[in-house]
Design a protein that fits this description.
With 282 residues, this protein is an alpha/beta fold. Helices cover 44% and strands 16% of the residues. Strand 4, helix 7 and strand 5 form a beta-alpha-beta unit.
Length: 282
């Protein structure tokens, strides 16, 4: 166990880090905790400029975090960015943590109250239900979803599109749906030599995960977003380290829409057109 705290950013709440079990009760940090903190800070480096951009444009920023769990990300963002912007909070800056497990929602509510983080709300909703919930505003500036399992990432993208989010930040996880459809339609797809890429069961799983994120990027581009894909440092022990960041720029949509449709048709995923839906005009 190390008692060094030089890894902690200035102004960071020590009480928060203890509550999130990044620090021990006596304020110490072990190697696992240091790695966890490194991961969250690395993600913060990607998200902070997005928050600043929105705030500069309209004086406030709203963020919805889907599959929030214990709300590590939401609390760190609030602690390092939102709490330092009291005027922005008066203008409507807010973080919404969305989580299906009621016990985690209650724990997060208690922690936010204890820390005085008044600009945070926690909602016991599925990602799909949150799209129509009156507990959220009509538009959300930034939408995040970290390791939202299987189709929950796509639901978060759906939510972001419905809420006209300027920025979308997702770290996808457990993408089993596409692989299962590939498996089901494999016999027919093998007429195309390209299907050799996913003929073997292990390759089906790996290709299913890869192609899911490719389709997500094309979908976002088809809705006018500029998309970048990178990886998170400190997540080397996990394959789930792909970070997709999308910024709405009202870009041309036709080419991305055409390619998305062509890919779905070519590799036997036509039944997933609803999930990777295109703009109504596309």
């Amino acid at each position: 166990m190390s008692d060094k705290t030089h890894d902690i950013r200035p102004g960071q709440s020590i009480e928060l880090l203890k509550a999130l079990h990044i620090l021990t009760r006596d304020g110490k940090m072990n190697q696992d905790s240091r790695r966890k903190l490194k991961q969250v800070y690395h993600l913060f480096q990607f998200i902070e400029p997005l928050l600043k951009d929105v705030q500069q444009q309209r004086g406030a920023v709203t963020l919805a975090d889907h599959g929030a769990g214990k709300s590590y990300l939401g609390f760190i963002l609030y602690d390092l960015f939102f709490k330092e912007q009291p005027e922005a909070q008066k203008n409507g800056s807010h973080i919404y943590g969305i989580e299906t497990r009621e016990e985690l929602v209650k724990l997060s509510e208690e922690l936010a109250k204890r820390l005085g983080f008044g600009g945070m709300s926690f909602l016991n909703l599925s990602v799909a239900d949150s799209i129509t919930s009156d507990k959220l505003p009509a538009t959300i500036d930034v939408v995040t979803a970290l390791h939202a399992c299987n189709t929950a990432t796509d639901d978060a993208i759906h939510f972001a599109l419905e809420k006209k989010a300027k920025y979308i930040v997702v770290v996808p996880c457990c993408q089993a749906e596409v692989a299962s459809v590939l498996r089901k339609n494999k016999a027919k797809a093998l007429a195309d030599p390209l299907a050799e890429i996913w003929r073997h069961p292990l390759h089906t799983r790996e290709f299913g995960s890869q192609i899911t994120n490719v389709l997500r990027c094309l979908q976002l581009e088809a809705h006018g977003y500029q998309v970048s894909v990178t990886e998170l440092v400190g997540w080397e022990h996990s394959m789930k380290n792909e970070l997709i960041i999308a910024q709405y720029k009202d870009l041309p949509r036709r080419k991305a829409a055409e390619r998305l449709t062509e890919m779905l048709n070519r590799i036997g995923l036509q039944e997933l057109k609803e999930r990777f839906f295109l703009p109504r005009a596309a």
